[in-house]
Each structure stands twice: as C-alpha cells, then as structure tokens.
C-alpha cells in the first residue's frame, strides 16, 4: 500500500455513478445526499497514478426534504479517502445554489444530480462552483469488506490490551 497517493482525480467508476443515479431516483421527491470516496487507480487495475471515485458514504441521521438535505457534520468521519460530495436537485436544476456553494469547501469535486436522474442529468463542480469534467470510468470495483479484520486480529488486540 502506498502511503502517499496521487491527488489527481481521474473520474468516477461507472458502477458508482449508476448507484448514485438510482439512489437519487429512489429518494425523489426528496433530496439525496452523500459523500464521495476514492481509491487508488492502480488498485483498480488502471495503469496510471491518480484516484477514482468508488464509494458513496451516506451519513446516519441525514434529513432530507424536497428543498434540501441536511447532514449532521459531527457524524461525518475524517476519511482520507474523501474527495467530495453528491446531492440531488429534485427540481432538475443542474447548477449549485448559494447554499450548495457554502458546503463545497471540502473535497475536490461535488456532483449535482437532477430529475429525472438519467445519464445526462448530472454535473460535476469544483470547490468554487465552477463546472468541471469528471469522466465515467469502466473499472471493476474490489469486493467491499465492511470489516477488514479477522477474529485473529481481534484476539491479538485483546491480548495486547490485557498486557498494558
């Protein structure tokens, strides 16, 4: 594993974009909100440095209605893989509102998806709210392991705690 990754964002995995479109449609008429996480491109089999958006993190306690989605910021993890945000505009407007711009400070890219939530119904923006290009990339996503430790890891940690 490389300690320092390239910060260049190469794009978003097709499967991740499909998930976003479906989640936004299922949440309609309320707004959908999530945070984008990326993986190293080489880990995904690409022969170049950079990152690819592979995950959407939905924060527990997010409250949404047709006009907004509110996240409890104290619930948002400090995640090294975090690269931005995604939310929907049920009214179909594909540009950031003033309220959106106030939340665009963290991350490299912010995706807005509008009704009717098809492949042409989304745009990517930078932190200043300027539209930016975000390629959809065909990569095979790694099997997600919610818990990336084993029982042996747990037992070893318990033993270590007992000796402290």
TrEMBL record:
The keyword Acyltransferase does not apply. Transmembrane segments: none annotated. One of its GO terms (molecular function) is metal ion binding. The keyword Magnesium does not apply. GO terms for biological process: proteolysis. Residues 10-131 form the MPN domain. CDD domains: MPN_archaeal (cd08072). GO terms for cellular component: proteasome complex. Keywords: Proteasome. Gene3D superfamilies: Cytidine Deaminase, domain 2. It comes from the Archaea. This is Proteasome Rpn11 subunit JAMM motif protein. It comes from Halalkaliarchaeum desulfuricum.
């Amino acid at each position: 594993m490389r300690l320092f990754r390239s910060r260049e964002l190469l794009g978003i995995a097709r499967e991740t974009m499909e998930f976003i479109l479906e989640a936004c449609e299922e949440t309609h008429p309320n707004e959908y909100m999530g945070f984008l996480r990326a993986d190293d491109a080489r880990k995904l089999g690409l022969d170049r440095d950079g990152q690819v958006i592979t995950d959407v993190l939905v924060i527990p306690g997010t409250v949404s209605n047709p006009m907004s989605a509110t996240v409890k910021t104290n619930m948002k993890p400090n995640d090294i893989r975090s690269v931005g945000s995604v939310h929907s505009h049920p009214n179909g407007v594909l540009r950031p509102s003033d309220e959106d711009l106030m939340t665009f400070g963290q991350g490299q890219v912010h995706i807005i998806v509008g009704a009717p939530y098809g492949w042409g119904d989304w745009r990517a923006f930078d932190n200043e709210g300027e539209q930016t290009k975000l390629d959809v990339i065909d990569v095979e996503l790694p099997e997600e392991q919610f818990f990336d430790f084993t029982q042996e890891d747990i037992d070893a940690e318990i033993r270590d705690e007992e000796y402290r």
